[in-house]
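Per reviewer request, we include the raw input and output of the structure prediction for the construct analysed in the revised manuscript.
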Amino acid sequence: MAVHYKCSYCRKAMATLEEPYTFDDLGISNLHESDQEDIVRLTNKGDVHIASICEDCHEAFQLNPLLHETQQVIQ
């Protein structure tokens, strides 16, 4: 099972973890169930895809807070 992190705004692949990790190891189990449903997707192969935010999009949000009203920052 690989864990893939991808920016939920610009869709840039951020990291892939190949080691077997549990949701506890990743801190996902600390999230509210509705938040887990929003950011975690499991594939048929057993891979985990986690929607996060990359440094570029994070910086864009800090410089322009109105971007929080959009679903995608960079296309």
